[in-house]
Structure formats: structure tokens, C-alpha cells
Amino acid sequence: MPLVKIYIEPGPAVSYISSHLAIDAVSEANCDFILSVRCPWGIFDPIAIQAALDAPPCYSKPVLAFLISDCTDDFQILNNVTLFRLSLYKSRKSLNERLLPYIWTGAPPAFEPIRTISEKPVVGFCGVLSGNRAPLIAALEADDRVRTNFVIRDKFWGGKPHDPQLIKEFDDNIERSLFTVCCRGRGNFSMRFYQVLAAGRIPVIVHQDMEYPFEDEVDWDNYLVRGDSNEEVIEKLIDFWKHRDLEQVQIACRKIYETYFLPRAFLERTLRSFMVENCGS
């Protein structure tokens, strides 16, 4: 990758991002472009987000900005800013918006594919029934062609997000289920989608105008089950389970995670693309 000079705005979120890039930071005056996180991590208020995007300083150089939020609202974005955001609707995405994968899952777990395939597809889920998860989970439980492995919480992470036992139960649920429900929560994206790929398992999604990362490079229908309705998803799930080499799919899911969604892999790929678009190199 050609040498590129980057000015890094201060802040905890951008520090995490910059720590996974093999770059030398320079001053604003000497940079080629700017790495920026204007919005606090997890901010949801669209008025506050727009105010942060509009806040000075207003740079004249190309800016690569990050919005780590569940918010799906539309924003006015300066022409020289490319905004990477977790949550968006594909049909409403502006020209200078990009999908931001959830690259904060931590080190991927040890990987071992499920090699003994059960008589029915095993579908797991551990969490709160927000978004469009509840109808799909109910439909799966009612279908005798499927075996479910569901752990339903009444609060986010059971009300104790850092509890080691709850984290272990979540990870075990994914590891022991060939498929996992990864429908959206409050935002129009799924953190669990990336966690399932990291474990080398197969996501199952009823999607609502979602964009999937790197769709120009990854034929996602080979590695996940997705559809516009519960009925479509379940029929595709049964067909996927009957007709795919499920061990090879698991291996491929893990490889996709390592290739695209480990922080350094994603950010270096993003940086190369950004340089081509904005610096002509």
C-alpha cells in the first residue's frame, strides 16, 4: 500500500481504529486525509448526530468518519466526508455513506466445525427478542422440521453485560448451533451476524432493506440464510441444510470473517479503497 499521510482526530473510538492501522500520523496541515469520529460511541439522538457532523472544524481535505450507533436516520453529510456507519437502510444510503461492519467482536474464538449433522437443522439464539427476532423465533419453534436451541433474555445481556457466565452461555449457544438467528435489533444491522461468522457458523436473517458488507466480493447466499419473510427464511433454511456441504460452509464463514472483519483486515482494505476514491492512488 503506498505511503499515505493521515491526521487522526483525538478520541477513544478513533484510537481503537487507528491502533489497527500500520500508519504514521501527521499534523492536519501535512496530511492527505483525516480520520475522524465526531459522534460519541453509541449516540442515538439524530439531532445530536447531525450537530456533531456539522461541528467545526470543517476540514477542506477528505475525511473518513465513523458513526457507531443504532440510529437509522438520514443525515446531511459534507461532500468531502465519507461516513462509515453501522446502521442504515440500503435503499436510502447516500453516495458518501458506507456500511461499517461491527469490527469490535474481539479475538475470534477457537474454531472447530460441527461435523456430525443432526437429523434436523439446529437453530440457536441467545438474547432479547427485539426487532423482528420474535416472530421468526416463534415460527421456528412451531416448525417440526427444525430443532431449536433458544435462550431468551428479558434484558440486554441479561442486565449484566460483562458477566462471564452470561458471555459463556452466549458463545456456547453459537458454537453448538449450526445456524443462529441474526435478525436486527434496534438498529438495522446485526452485531450477532459478525459473531456467528467469527465462530464459523451460519447466520439466519429476516432482513429489512439491509445492506451486507462487501456484496461485490462475497456471494452471501452461499454462506447465510436470508429472506424477506419468516416463511421464506425457513424454507431456505431447510433447503440449505439438505443440499449444502455444511462443513465446508462453516470453514468458509470463518475464512470470510478473518479476511474481511478482523479490525486490521477491514481497515486496511477500507483505507486502500478510500485512497483510490479520494487520492487517485
List keywords for this structure.
single chain; alpha/beta; Rossmann fold; five-stranded parallel beta sheet; 8 helices; 33% helix
Task: Report what the structure shows.
With 281 residues, the protein is an alpha/beta fold. The chain has helices at residues 12-19, 46-54, 133-142, 164-175, 191-198, 230-243, 246-260, 263-279; strands spanning 6-8, 33-36, 63-67, 81-85, 97-99, 122-128, 147-153, 179-181, 202-206, 225-227. It has two domains: 6-101 and 263-279; 122-260, 3-Layer(aba) Sandwich (Rossmann fold). The chain is built from eight helices and ten strands. The strands form two sheets. A five-stranded parallel sheet has the order 1-2-3-4-5, with helices on one face. Strands 7-6-8-9-10 form a five-stranded parallel sheet, sandwiched between helices. Strand 2, helix 2 (46-54) and strand 3 form a beta-alpha-beta unit. The radius of gyration is 20 Å and the shape is elongated.
Radius of gyration: 20 Å
**Overall morphology:** elongated
Give the helix/strand class: alpha/beta
The secondary-structure element order is: EHEHEEEEHEHEHEEHHH
Q: What number of domains?
A: 2
Cα distance, first to last residue?
9 Å
Q: Main sheet: which strands, in order across?
A: 1-2-3-4-5
Q: How many runs of DSSP E, i.e. beta strands?
A: 10
Question: In the CATH scheme, what's the topology name of the largest domain?
Answer: Rossmann fold
Number of helices: 8
State the CATH superfamily name of the largest domain. Answer: Glycogen Phosphorylase B
Q: What would you say the CATH architecture of the largest domain is?
A: 3-Layer(aba) Sandwich
Report the biggest beta sheet as strand number plus sense, adding barrel if it closes: 5 strands, parallel
Which stretches are poorly predicted, pLDDT < 50 over at least 5 residues?
none
